[in-house]
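Illustration 12: Transport permease protein.
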Amino acid sequence: MNPRITGAIAARVLTQLRRDHRTLAIMLVLPCLLISLLWWMFDDLPGDSFDRLGPALLAMFPFIVMFLVTSVTTLRERSGGTLERLLAMPMGKLDFLFGYALAFGIVAAVQSVAAVGISVGLLDLTIVGPVWLLTVVAVADAVLGSALGLFVSAFARTEFQAVQFMPALVIPQILLCGLFVPRDRLPDVLGSVSDVLPLSYAVDAMQHLTRSPATGEVWRDLAVVAAYAVAGLALGAATLRRQSP
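Figure caption equivalent — predicted structure in token form:
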């Protein structure tokens, strides 16, 4: 992998995103709007529902948005012939994948800073741990979504098929991550499945930051999320094709 080529790929993707205002709005504005909508829903109700659900959604929204955008964008590169032309140059698959991951990671950082800033600064989400660590976890979740999006794009022929991977890979993680039922109260089989899903650890990290100033468990969960992201990129490199199958 050549750092100069990787940086050039990342700069190219960022330039494309800057010109695509609708995609940029989905990536940067939509998570903030959805979190604000959730706060509005619970604002007049008794209890601390937003404090209970907010951290999990801060983990989920960047993951979901980046998964969708990355899988569709990568497939578009392949179906349009851009990927074939790029790989015909002196560039490896890892240069392409890490360039994309770097570009979307930068966007994810901006997205996460905005979402965390609105949640904590304007919507009064209760955070006991450091806010900067909350932002780091949100960025890691978004990068994980990008890595999985790069991976699944190799198995889709159309943008619609890329979106169809969401029910298979994303929705089960949402159901089992602890948002609806605490993970320790799930049936044994579902609990075991939850233990191997990366979004579970992202949500756990967010929830730890709302309950305790200790950060040891957060760093452990963050390491698991990062490992899944690296594995997703490695699998993406192994399955990356120049053209749609």
